From TrEMBL:
It holds the Pfam family Molybdop_Fe4S4. CDD domains: MopB_Formate-Dh-H. The gene is fdhF. This is Formate dehydrogenase subunit alpha. It comes from Natronomonas aquatica. GO terms for biological process: formate metabolic process; respiratory electron transport chain. Keywords: 4Fe-4S, Iron, Iron-sulfur, Metal-binding. GO terms for cellular component: membrane. The keyword Cytoplasm does not apply.
Length: 679
């Protein structure tokens, strides 16, 4: 892209972590793709092509609102800010700064999130998190622990070189469409084999040569059995083990107790199919793992990823092109929201808040020291609403739809003394707000976002926010100025980025000019000429030459299904995005069959007298919903699937409170339910 003249309207898609270049054309009101660093031919998916609709939508919030006598009424900015100031200062003086909680936004820029986490810490709390907690916190925990960095080990570009893709618990054909179509599929057409581990047959499975339709929650026995096949059939990379891996003997001992047939049975897979897939992965010269929510969103999410990491280490598939372990990140800036420190336990650059040197270093830049006690994670904060947390600021998230056990979450949202919501639309969460601040959509803001393969790219405004709505960054800076003793007077997003560079060593060598209409990839320390593509090549990101193999035991689901119950797992479809706040309002995204239905296997449907199109009642220990049944062999027997994109039926009324003990990620992928026909 270096030879292109910078064009001020080039921005980045507001949806997924692929980070395609799109631009808004005010004259026509449409959005088109430009030749971005990822979508190098300007190609975009249906959501990107429909992203213009949210910019000039009739439902956009155009005025600040505050709650008076139970109703939200439009007010001036001054009145809205005064309400926030008086409520927050009352809460802090009565109950201390930890009585406030801040939800950052992985749909928003690095600069905006940086300001939000800094203002929380200036008030004196580390209660700040973003919804990376709900996607890949378990992956980040496992990979951070073993490899020293939680991000994609490789780049989309070099992953074209793989001979085998092992895609576990992800559906890139629908969730990362341009990665799938422009990177994976062309390689697959040229002979790269795809192993797909997913209880459902999806568009991704259509390109696979092996499909392991695992029982939800049983990926650990599957991975352990694959590891055993690799060992038994001499497919381990002895030279790599010798040079780069520790605890090899202990791991071999652990595998000696693994029974391949027994594990395959537990995972619900034919042992021969499992063996064949393990061979394909193990024999490849270069094999790359992609992982997603099917692995990460479990009570054992961190262990699931540990079990995957073992496969990569055993076969020497780390530190070179076309290999590695690659978590496909969620929103357009979920990677960056973590990098810049919108997390309760770490400061910008993943330095622990408990590390006195890290606090001191950042105090030099900030002029104040952040608190030393880790804050609460997102769901932990929600569970404290009305108890230890009295006030919350929710920036660009819709937890009333997306957090698990929605009945409990909604009850908790209602118990806050003061809920401030920064939004584009009047969402289900805004229903509970005491103050609603109208912010800016993607085409109305400047700043940077960091995509799934660590590329930092620039967004540029090409429209003004509607009515009295304001740019998110200016809004957050004013909040900082009003709620703290610090100064949040930044002239522009660039001024914030220049500060980020000084406190975040991974971004130290970057600049707005250097990024231009291309990208810069972290790690890019100050003084370097460019960022690093393939991580862990000579040493791991933690500076160590070696990583360890780790024995991982299967743990049964916390909520096992009894004989008359089924296991509900949840996820996504191509045309909708997360809580649906944006995509449900689209007039151009075509409705898909099954987008708002319960997938159920024909045999399970038969047992219950359910026909395709019937309305069924789904009940868990936490709640119940009515939903239309889609009878299909695309889902394995004993399992049902629904998306969580709709407020009606609200699928998260069914999911429960269990969190992974390490990463605190919710169990979204395994809930025991009863399904009965109602019509
Ligand atoms: N179209 C679209 N794209 C999106 C999003 C969206 O909402 N819509 N959201 C973005 C975000 S925030 C994220 S985090 C990513 C998520 O992207 P993905 O990780 O692809 O998302 P999911 O559909 O939640 O889950 C992936 C697959 O896991 C499978 N699965 C369920 N349970 C299990 C299990 O126990 N084991 C295994 N191995 N697989 C299982 C499901 O059947 C599903 O096909 O997508 C991003 N991109
Ligand atoms: N059952 C089940 N539940 C799940 C999951 C699952 O797989 N199954 N997945 C989980 C995952 S991985 C995730 S990431 C979460 C997602 O959960 P959320 O982040 O709550 O979902 P979104 O719909 O992305 O919410 C983004 C909100 O920000 C607003 N917004 C968008 N852009 C901007 C902007 O530029 N400025 C401002 N001010 N606001 C903006 C939108 O209007 C929208 O309301 O859902 C989680 N919930
Ligand atoms: S693949 Fe993702 S980033 Fe690209 S256009 Fe589609 S939703 Fe946007
Ligand atoms: Mo996500």
């Amino acid at each position: 892209m270096a030879d292109r003249a910078p064009d001020p309207s080039e921005s980045i898609c507001p949806y997924c972590g692929v980070g395609c270049g799109i631009e808004y054309e005010p004259d026509t009101g449409k959005a088109t793709g430009w030749k971005g660093p990822v979508n190098t031919r300007g190609e975009i998916c249906p959501k990107g092509a429909a992203a213009w609709e949210i910019v000039d939508h009739d439902d956009r919030l155009t005025q600040p609102k505050v709650r008076e006598d139970g109703r939200l009424v439009s007010v001036s900015w001054e009145t809205a800010f005064e309400r926030i100031e008086s409520e927050c200062s009352r809460i802090v003086s009565e109950a201390g700064p930890d009585a406030l909680g801040f939800f950052a936004s992985s749909n928003c820029t690095n600069e905006e999130n940086y300001v939000l986490q800094k203002l929380a810490r200036a008030i004196g709390t580390n209660n700040v998190d973003n919804c990376a907690r709900l996607c890949h916190s378990s992956t980040v925990a496992a990979m951070g622990d073993r490899f020293g960095a939680g991000a994609m080990t490789n780049t989309l570009e070099d992953l074209r070189e793989a001979d085998v893709y092992l895609v576990a618990g992800a559906n890139p054909a629908e969730q990362h469409p341009i990665v799938f179509r422009s990177y994976l599929l062309p390689s697959i057409r040229e002979g790269t084999e795809l192993i797909h581990v997913d209880p459902r047959t999806t568009d991704t499975t259509d390109a696979a040569s092996h499909h392991l339709a695992v029982r939800p929650g049983f990926d650990i026995p599957l991975c352990n059995a694959m590891a055993k096949v690799i060992l038994e059939e001499d497919l381990v990379d002895e030279r790599f083990l010798e040079a780069r891996v520790e605890r090899v003997r202990t791991f071999r001992e652990f595998l000696s107790s693994v029974d391949i047939d027994e594990n395959a049975r537990l995972a619900g897979i034919d042992p021969d199919e499992l063996r064949a897939a393990a061979r394909t992965y193990g024999e490849a010269d270069r094999a790359a793992i992609f992982t997603g929510m099917g692995m990460s969103q479990h009570h054992c999410g961190t262990d699931n990823v540990h079990a995957l990491l073992n496969l990569a280490l055993l076969t020497g598939n780390v530190g070179k092109a076309g290999t590695g372990v690659n978590p496909l990140r969620g929103q357009n800036n979920v990677q960056g929201a973590g990098d810049i420190g919108a997390l309760p336990d770490v400061l910008p650059g993943y330095r622990p808040v408990t590390d006195a040197d890290a606090r001191e270093a950042i105090a030099d830049a900030w002029g104040f020291e952040p608190p030393a006690t880790p804050g609460l994670t997102e769901v932990e904060m929600s569970h404290e609403f009305g108890d230890s947390i009295h006030g919350a600021v929710v920036f660009g998230e819709n937890p009333a739809v997306t957090e698990p056990n929605a009945n409990r979450i909604r009850d908790r949202l209602g118990r806050l003394d003061c809920l401030v919501v920064l939004e584009l639309f009047h969402t289900e969460t805004a229903e509970y707000a005491d103050v609603v601040l109208p912010g800016s959509a993607w085409a109305e803001k400047g700043g940077t976002v960091t995509n799934t393969d660590r590329q930092v790219m620039r967004m540029r405004p090409n429209a003004e926010p509607p009515g009295d709505a304001r740019r998110d960054l200016s809004l957050l800076c004013e909040l900082g100025d009003r709620l703290t003793d610090e100064r949040f007077t930044y002239e522009s997003p660039k001024a914030v980025f220049d500060e980020i560079r000084t406190v975040l060593p991974q971004y130290g060598g970057m600049s707005y000019a250097g990024i231009g209409t291309g990208s810069q990839r972290w790690p890019f320390p100050e003084g370097a000429s460019e960022g690093v593509g393939v991580l862990h090549a000579e040493e791991f990101a933690n500076g160590r030459r070696t990583a360890e193999l780790r024995a991982v035991d299967h743990v049964d689901p916390v909520d096992p299904a009894s004989d008359d119950e089924l296991v509900l797992t949840t996820g996504r479809v191509l045309q909708h995005f997360n809580s649906g706040a944006l995509t449900r309002r689209s007039g151009t995204l075509t409705r898909m069959r099954g987008e708002n239905a319960l997938q159920i296997h024909p045999d399970d449907a038969d047992d219950r007298g359910i026909d395709d199109g019937d309305t069924v009642e789904v009940t868990s220990d936490h709640g119940n919903v009515s939903i239309v049944a889609e009878v299909t062999p695309a889902i394995r027997r004993g399992t049902v699937f629904a998306t969580f994109h709709f407020a009606e039926p609200l699928i998260n009324r069914l999911t429960g409170d269990t969190l992974d003990p390490v990463a605190k990620i919710p169990e979204y992928k395994h809930t025991a339910v009863r399904v009965t026909v109602t019509s």
